[in-house]
Design brief:
The chain is mainly alpha-helical. The protein contains 16 helices and no strands.
Length: 356
Amino acid sequence: MIDLITGSLLMGWDTLLGYLSEHVVTCLIPAFFIAGAIAALVKKEAILKYFSPDAKKSVAYGLASVSGTVLAVCSCTILPMFAGLFKRGSGIGPATTFLYAGPAINILAIVYTAKVLGFDLGLARAVFAIILAIVIGLIMAFLFRSHDRETKKKMAEMPVSPAPEVERPKWIIPLFFVFLVGILIAGTAQADWMIKFPIIYLFTLGAAVLLIYFFDRDEVTDWGLETWDLTKKIFPILIVGTFVLGMLAFFLPPETFQPFFGTNSIESTMLASFIGTILYMPTLLEVPVIGTTFGYTSGIMAGGPALSLLLSGPSVSLPSLLVISRIMGWKKTGVYALLVIVFSGLAGFAYGLIIG
């Protein structure tokens, strides 16, 4: 018994160390700063224009669904950005579309999937991820119409952000976000640090120059406070959740489910979708896990379950669901998780029918 407990603790510790070494510096820290900037620097009017409950659906859902193509992030990293949007009055539909699409269709993961698991599966992942992101967002908006009504009421009561005494050029804030996102993308790129470091340094230098010459002290302070507020709410839950998930993996390794993924049946795709929803898989890691651990490249795992796992795994995990519940409550989180499971499973089943 003692050996089992010790082994599970070591597994949890190893999982946590791997998470910290792979994600904190290159992913989470830049993401928290981006989220803090969204909350502090993006005016209410800008959020309402593109993501509010009254925004044009084609614009709101279109932008949210393709967000992942420029953000090479996993579900844990998209959370602070989602929290920033949610806090600033985004409609629940576009916000959840952004939440799902961010890690589901990042360009690195799509290219890597096509290269390792095959072009057909990579293309199917990209197409179904965009479709599912929009569908899930629209359903969330329909089911929680009362939330959007309350959001519109609250935002209407909020004072309009005062114009700065010295108006800066309109391109400054977009360029500032370009620098921040550039730091995130460069940090997560699969490249040597001798290549990445100069790029990160230039982006950081550019952001610093803009802060010094175009932002006042109160704006910079607000950015720091918002970043810290999001960090202290989200980061501890991610740490605990990842550690616990590592312990569970000791008692229930993924290999246990391999015999259930050999066909394209609805049972197999739904099971794969469910497992993907509770497992923590950093972006890009899902590709070797599916290819080797679950045996897709060796023919053990069928294409349908593989796609279901690709669609659910990177977007949702047990630790991320715990964090999401803190942001929008357990009821909305439960519905969101259920939609991800069902639609990812159905997409995998449909893909299985297409490929025969």
